[in-house]
Model the fold of this input.
Amino acid sequence: MSEATPAATAVSFERVSVILGRNTVLEDVSARVPRGGCTAVVGPNGAGKTTLLLALLGQVRHRGEIRVARSGARAARIGYVPQRLTFDPGLPMTVRELMVLGRQRRPLWLGARAASRDRARGLLAAVRAEALESRALGALSGGEMQRVLLALALQQDPELLVLDEVEAGVDFHGEILFCELLETLRRARGFTQLMVSHDLSTVSHHATHVICLNRRVVAEGPPTRVLDDENLTALFGVHRGLVDPRALPPAGSHPDHAPGARDEHA
Done:
């Protein structure tokens, strides 16, 4: 991964290919992530969406080039929110302890330093999860855990926030609230958001840029332009009845207020 892109681009993928075993997961993927917006990667199961994020994060080997815009003379800070956190639900750890785990050297059983506690509390408040501070990790719902993982990612003060299907395991109402929270945070903190999503309704409401992916890039651009009947058919085939293009906002309008049907098949 290199660190040089045009000023208006946060990330660029140039002919990126990933081969895992004998399977070609991504093939000659070229796309861009505009700076400061919310870019959504959409596609059917097995399309390589998560693999594209992992290639960006340096977690899988790839061919081609991935460029991340620098912030002045230094590399951009990247925050990552995974789809889920794998842990023993019986682990006797609270949200506060998870938040301060990587920020202090002394053992947790000696307690958290006041500065670490204050920062953790502030980040939890930023994601509207301050009431969870003393809760055990194993007692959290899917939506509550996603907020905690988001707070953890914000510890990096990221310029690029990468999220992998964060709506998985969250009910429809919680999904809407989480996306609205992300939009508020993005505008307040000025980061670029890159997310994988299976829900085209969420994408049509909140994304400013869309990459349609099925091993290769099928289309990319504003959701009002790329989420049309032709591209959805090319992307999902016989299952293209996911979003009615007539329900999307007129071209040129802001996607945040677009109506749309919930994706039930991606």
Summary: The mean pLDDT is 82.
